[in-house]
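Hey Z.,

So I finally got round to the flavin-adenine dinucleotide thing we talked about over coffee. Here's the setup:
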Amino acid sequence: MDKKYTKEFEPGFTPLTVCEEASRCLLCLDAPCSKACPAGTNPDKFIRSVRFRNFKGAAETVRENNALGAICARVCPTEKYCQKGCSRSGIDRPIDIGRIQRYVTDFESSAKMDILKAGKANGKSVALVGSGPAALQAAVSFRTIGYAVDVYEKEKVLGGMLRLIPEYRLPDAIVDEEIKRIEKLGVKFHTGCLVGKDVSVADLKAKHDAVVLAPGYSYGKMLPMFEGNKYVVSAVDFLREVKAKKGDVKVPSNVLVVGGGDVAMDVVSTLKLLGVPHVTDVVYEQFSEFKASKKELEGAQKLGVTIMDGFVPAHVEGNVVSFAHRVIKSEVKVEAELIVLAVGQYPDVSGLGVELVKGEVNTGKPYYTNDPKVFVCGDIAHSKYDKTVVGGVRTGKEVALYVNAALGGK
Ligand SMILES: Cc1cc2nc3c(=O)[nH]c(=O)nc-3n(C[C@H](O)[C@H](O)[C@H](O)COP(=O)(O)OP(=O)(O)OC[C@H]3O[C@@H](n4cnc5c(N)ncnc54)[C@H](O)[C@@H]3O)c2cc1C
Ligand code: SF4
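And the result:
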């Protein structure tokens, strides 16, 4: 097996380089980086600690504010948040906040620090449905207040979409460690349990004071013309299998990927790192309209992925797909041994007793459903936060406060 898939792409800082990077920080008052972090991780505070070689203090700042600090350090789109408004950009380039956070959380792990503490038991309990970033953060926030917490997850492994983010960007070991820390806080996990089928929301309501739904967008979309085609797999299923097998999968020599978002970029880059010689990505958008981040797109191009922009699938026969260009009169045919569809994900809330409007639960009251005992958070909750890991963390923190207030807590 080619080791490229399992090796973290970005090198981490050393004790020397992390201090050099932290010393570039301008120690701004009213720091724009901290204002822009959806999780409230307080970059200006932990960078200041790093500057004074206080790695322990830095780790406490990150962890107390973000239960998934080591994960966010690796996958957060920092160019959209903390690094976007960084005052240092006006001089040369923004501080590499993500990598400083990664150093700090790696330090926390190697020093075996135990920062999170459960609050005094308040005699109440909550059930969380799903174990993605939103539910994991909510579990910690509830434990901190003093709630007993049970998490119900349909898959055999915990972590939701974190288990799809390729190993070279987010090693499974990091996710395992974050979850172990949460388990140590006393959170009980029940895997292989599909709520709505194996256990009902009514059962959970009878057992707990509140139920919080966080089922995310767990399923890969199919385009009707590809339905039932034996050459076709969804990006979600493909990425999940590769990650679960640590990249030890058989790959063909020629793969067609349809889609142009960040998930599609994960698929094409994974394929190249697994050693697939011919990867063709056909994208609906033209380059000027691309949905994928510039960094992901450039990464895929550097790996040698062929990207054809502005095409829509017009016809499919077995493993041969014809595409028509949206603007110019042009048609191409691509033949591949495997076709991966990266055309989006969708939520399935069957049996959960909620209705979706444009893929979200939106009752006009944040995190509330029409049932006073049932709440939502994460990707399916209507909120002002992006559908990202850090967005999930923020909604997880907030839903705990809303539920606690609804149950008469402070
Ligand atoms: C391939 C990929 C790459 C991504 N990369 C990034 C990135 O680099 N940075 C970033 O910030 N974001 C990224 N995202 C987005 C991010 O992962 C999601 O926004 C985030 O995981 C959403 O969190 P969530 O808790 O709402 O739901 P999810 O992570 O989707 O988790 C939901 C969980 O609920 C479970 N579930 C669903 N229904 C039930 C049920 N009825 N009973 C029990 N369990 C159930 C599911 O199995 C799943 O484990 C990526 C997403 C994908 C798919
Ligand atoms: S905005 Fe940039 S320079 Fe200012 S405190 Fe934050 S990281 Fe340092």
